[in-house]
Every structure is written in structure tokens, then in C-alpha cells.
Amino acid sequence: MQEVKVLRTWVQTPLCLRERNATDFIPTGIHRSELNLNWLSKINVTPVSTELTFLQRNAELERENKQLRKKVLDQKLLLLEYKSSTEAKLEEARVSEENLIRCNEDYKREMKQQAEETNRLMKQMMDMFQKQAQP
Questions:
Q1: Read out DSSP for 6-22?
Q2: Is the dihedral of CA 68, 74, 80, 83 positive or negative?
Q3: In terms of pTM, does the model score above 0.70?
Q4: Are 25 and 15 in contact (CB under 8 A)?
């Protein structure tokens, strides 16, 4: 007897357990604990084609692109919220400034009227003093 190493097995017809005895094609001497599959990790798997590599890279880029778009949309939303709050504050400040200007103009007008009234009363008093001073 010689030891023979089997590299590949070609099966032309599918195996069927109903038609054959299981001991005909499954050796009884092999146990799961005896199988050494470490050689699988040493196989250098190369891509099937460059197209597959491109498709995989494209999928990664699309995923990254979606994440970046989401971040950009979040930033745009924050910017819009900031703009709207800033515009509201500016409008409030403008209205407040207009009210202050109007109040200041009203105050100036009132002070001018009071000054005119005071000048008129002073003139009347001076006229009365002059009339009393004349014999």
C-alpha cells in the first residue's frame, strides 16, 4: 500500500444518501477533531477582478459620502437656525431702537414746548414788572 494525497475531487453526479450506503463515500476514520484547517488562513485571496475591487471601493465611498452629506445637512440646519434667531434678534433690536428714537424725539419736542412756555411766562413777568415800574 502507498499513501496518496488527493488534491481535488471531481464529482459528475450529485451524491445521494438514499441510493448509496453512507460508508461507501464517507471514510469512518476521519473525525472532526483530526481536521486541521489552519492552511485556510494562509491562503492569499486575490480579488476576482478589478471591477469587483472598484465596486467594493465605490460602495465604501458612497457610504462615506452619505455620512458626509448627513453632516453637511446637519450643519446647514444649524446655520439656518442660527440665521433665523439672529435675524429675529436684529429685528427686535431695530424695533427697540426705533422706539427709543421716537421717545427721544417726543422728549425733545416736549422740552422745547416747556422751554417756549417758560420763555413766554418770563416775558409776561418782565412786561408786568416794567408796567409796575412805570409811574
A1: ------SS---TTTS-H
A2: negative
A3: no
A4: yes
